[in-house]
């Protein structure tokens, strides 16, 4: 396949399901659009990229994704501005990161041309599905999984790359309260924590259920050695504001290099907010809460955007965060969404037109 | 469903594929039998257990297994003795362990009755597929995966439990050489290393590819803190013989509690072999190799049975193991397979008749 001239054929649905959807009350990630992009890796190359009606996938029971969790994904969003123009936010960063994940999971990398042309063709096909109600957007889920067969614990010989889209409302409903984890862990040094690998998420579900049973919505993961440093929250990176200083953990082979995370760091620099990217001790958080210098805690991610955290739990105690006017979280949220929805200038070149 | 009287209906294939298979030259895990067992968790309970023709699975692209790696499995084998009787090896241990994995991965546990009756019904249906050539057996793969839909990173509301079977030859062909890992890691403290979770395997593929490029077949994983202690090999637990003492690492939340591993420990006790279950330093292995006391290194697992290791690599050096007559590995392999194939007495009650 000549990648410089990749053309994506489109097979359209006979009847759109769009009229069945209430676009003013969208859940997160449950409604899907009419079409999906699909491409198959077989005989050593990615083949047959196309947009087809959204449809079930048929797989052999020995497909390796079922047994060895060989699967990676990305999370992105498309936004429609008041003139009906469609925008993405830093999509090439997602494309690059998908291939960083692919390499670590022994999955063949997806050529940039296939990713970008497939994405654009799908978005143009389903552009009427992009919601415009406040706080809603089209959540985009590119994913690659091992569709090749066999019970031997080794990489597959066939992979499937799909992009699906879901018109979605907010990821969190209501206030977000987190528990700082003291028992379970998300990632190992030298492991796959930096990748958007399926297995990273499955391993978080049980500890998150335990936290939810105690009234929290998310877990803030800590290092697996001594649970001494905060890392990330699985669905989002974590930011801390102590006094007027913004802190976040450095990325590593345990922590995802979030697109929203790095956008916030750049906005903070742009606005002259003092920032420290360094390991953050749980102890430091607790002490700052106790002496009144802990002003904010918030999560940042594509799905969660910027989500203020109202309290955190640690060693059986709950620490409340103050309810600030004009918080960093609300400032960053406004600046990022204004760029995403084309309501403000984009000095960093983050907005990407779909045309 | 009344579990005490669970009946498994069987839908048979119209035409068996059995005559197409060369039972004297079986690969590992590539050939599948005519039927499979399937059962679905939905609306809060496991439903509709049945044996059906082996067939593709149809899933929504948003099925959570594709995104969050929420999947677990077991590995078992069925053996046919010279009189045509069919045996399993400690199957209730696999059933128990599947549910230990299930709990950690937030997957609903499979009732013992469904697991055991489903397994027995399937094996009776496909008993003509159990190979009898030396070194071959019917590899059995029970697995449970999240078939429920949605892009929200949370546990699914539907799961599928399948048992598939593959008449198989040996897992390894030829000598096995391992590399002791110094960079990558398999498991975190507080993670899912003790579970047979899909994600544990996907994360091993890339480091294993790197090792294979350097002439090794498997990686021996070490702790993620300092790569100081040997843990397990992903597809098998690791045993070391220094002098006449047998050593293996203790199980933990990082190391799988292997059925073959614990069977070997019991055989060693039975035979009066001095045994130490304790953390083993890589340094100790290297020193024992250098001073000539390192006699054996072998892997143990259902697929690999007992696999002698001919050399190990560490810090760019390769250490050869001696080629012993009457090695522990060969003794254990003989004792275990003699019990499995009903060629010897079974003092421990490990053999389980399928009838």
UniProtKB/TrEMBL annotation, chains A, B:
GO molecular function, one term: branched-chain-amino-acid transaminase activity
Its EC number(s): 2.6.1.42
NCBIfam families reported for this sequence: ilvE_II, PRK13357.1
Cofactor: pyridoxal 5'-phosphate
Function (record text): Acts on leucine, isoleucine and valine.
Keywords, sorted A to Z: Amino-acid biosynthesis, Aminotransferase, Branched-chain amino acid biosynthesis, Pyridoxal phosphate, Transferase
Pathway(s) per entry: Amino-acid biosynthesis; L-leucine biosynthesis; L-leucine from 3-methyl-2-oxobutanoate: step 4/4; Amino-acid biosynthesis; L-isoleucine biosynthesis; L-isoleucine from 2-oxobutanoate: step 4/4; Amino-acid biosynthesis; L-valine biosynthesis; L-valine from pyruvate: step 4/4
Reactions listed under catalytic activity: L-isoleucine + 2-oxoglutarate = (S)-3-methyl-2-oxopentanoate + L-glutamate; L-valine + 2-oxoglutarate = 3-methyl-2-oxobutanoate + L-glutamate; L-leucine + 2-oxoglutarate = 4-methyl-2-oxopentanoate + L-glutamate
InterPro entries: Aminotrans_IV, Aminotrans_IV_CS, Aminotransferase-like, B_amino_transII, BCAT-like_C, BCAT-like_N, BCAT_family
Listed name of the protein: Branched-chain-amino-acid aminotransferase
């Amino acid at each position: 396949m000549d990648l410089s001239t990749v053309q994506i054929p489109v097979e359209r649905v006979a009847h759109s399901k769009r009229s069945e959807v209430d676009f003013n009350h969208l859940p997160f990630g449950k409604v899907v659009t009419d079409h999906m992009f699909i491409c198959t890796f077989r005989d050593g190359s990615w083949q047959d990229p196309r947009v087809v009606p959204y449809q079930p996938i048929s797989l052999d029971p020995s497909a390796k994704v079922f047994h060895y969790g060989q699967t990676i994904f990305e999370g992105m969003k498309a936004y429609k501005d008041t003139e009906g123009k469609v925008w993405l936010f830093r999509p090439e960063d997602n494309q690059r990161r998908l291939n960083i994940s692919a390499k670590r999971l022994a999955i063949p990398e997806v050529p940039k041309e296939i990713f970008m042309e497939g994405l654009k063709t799908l978005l143009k096909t389903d552009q009427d599905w992009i919601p415009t109600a406040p706080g809603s957007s089209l959540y985009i889920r590119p994913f690659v999984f091992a569709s090749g067969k066999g019970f031997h614990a080794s990489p597959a010989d066939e992979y499937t790359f799909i992009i699906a889209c879901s018109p979605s409302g907010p990821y969190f409903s209501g206030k977000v309260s987190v528990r700082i984890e003291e028992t379970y862990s998300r990632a190992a040094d030298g492991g796959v924590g930096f990748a958007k690998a399926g297995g990273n998420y499955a391993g978080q579900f049980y500890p998150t259920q335990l936290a939810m049973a105690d009234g929290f919505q998310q877990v803030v993961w800590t290092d697996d050695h001594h649970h001494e440093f905060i890392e990330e929250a699985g669905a989002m990176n974590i930011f801390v504001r102590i006094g007027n200083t913004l802190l976040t953990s450095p990325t590593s082979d345990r922590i995802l290099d979030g697109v929203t995370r790095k956008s916030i760091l750049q906005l903070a620099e742009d606005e002259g907010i003092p920032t420290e990217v360094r390991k953050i001790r749980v102890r430091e958080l607790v002490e700052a809460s106790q002496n009144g210098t802990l002003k904010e805690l918030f999560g940042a991610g594509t799905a969660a955007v910027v989500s203020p955290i109202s309290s955190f739990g640690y060693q059986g105690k709950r620490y409340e965060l103050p309810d600030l006017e004009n918080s960093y979280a609300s400032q960053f949220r406004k600046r990022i969404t204004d760029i995403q929805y084309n309501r403000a200038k984009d000095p960093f070149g983050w907005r990407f037109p779909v045309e």
